[in-house]
Amino acid sequence: MGFRFWKVHGTENDFPLLDTATSGDIPTWTGTDVAPWFVREICDRRAGVGGDGLLIVERDRAGGRMIMYNPDGSRAEMCGNGLRCVAKHVAEMRGDRPAFVIIETDAGPKSCRLIWEGGVVTAVEVDMGAPVLDRASIPVAGSGSNRDIAIDVGARSFRATCVSMGNPHAVIVVDEPPMPLAETFGSRVETHPLFPKRINVEFVRPVGANRFETAVWERGAGITRACGTGASATGVALCLEGRAKLGETLVVALPGGDLSITVLPDLTNVRMRGAAVVVYEGEANPSMIQRFHETEGGPHRP
Hints:
Layout lengths: L2 E8 L2 E7 L16 H8 L10 E6 L3 E7 L5 E2 L3 H15 L5 E6 L2 E10 L2 E8 L21 E5 L2 E9 L3 E6 L4 H13 L9 E9 L2 E8 L3 E3 L3 H13 L8 E6 L2 E7 L6 E6 L1 E8 L2 H8 L8
């Protein structure tokens, strides 16, 4: 027998989801962290299930807990698109169609409002909490403001507003197509010396009233189709820069679809709404687990 999983996506940011109540033996080193080699294997799009990261779900009566891993095996503090998928999974497993669930994350508890259609959760609105704007807490090296930070990457220089939504983001507003910039400069911004824990990067171009085309380079993942915390951080940065208004809903248009973002006027909360989809449910080959048990140092492949 293999182990059970769900393939899910939020705005085409996709993940294998493992539920500790039903997924069986998940390889771990400590009982609380999944072995990085296993994360890399299951997220491999050729040899594994494939995904922009791995979601581990622990369910309880109030909701549950989400543990999120980047596809390189590192543990992430938060993932907004993954959170919507976890909230959908937890709610539909309960069977009583709750209006809200609380999901614990490494960035604290998140309240998730569920939109039901025909007995299925089709969208989720998440209270992402207050943005972190203190430069040292994001973290960004140096002193001063979290806004208008100069980032030099070779011959190109950018100005960023940095925000943490439980994980760090550098939001860079541009007047040219954002995807080529993300593809060319994303990795260099992510690993810039200004960012001691690396950083997620959003290149953003205004394209209409309260609509912003956005390309994302995610820390530990590279280019992704969408990023929920990134969309939330983008909304905060745009409001701080006067490009959008606090309290009004703006649309972050990502390659995988739109996310609606509302930054409360007092900056105490950011509300993110978007789709959550189960693509399929399956059983994975147990060879990864067997290899871990048989090989003390983990898999043969690095």
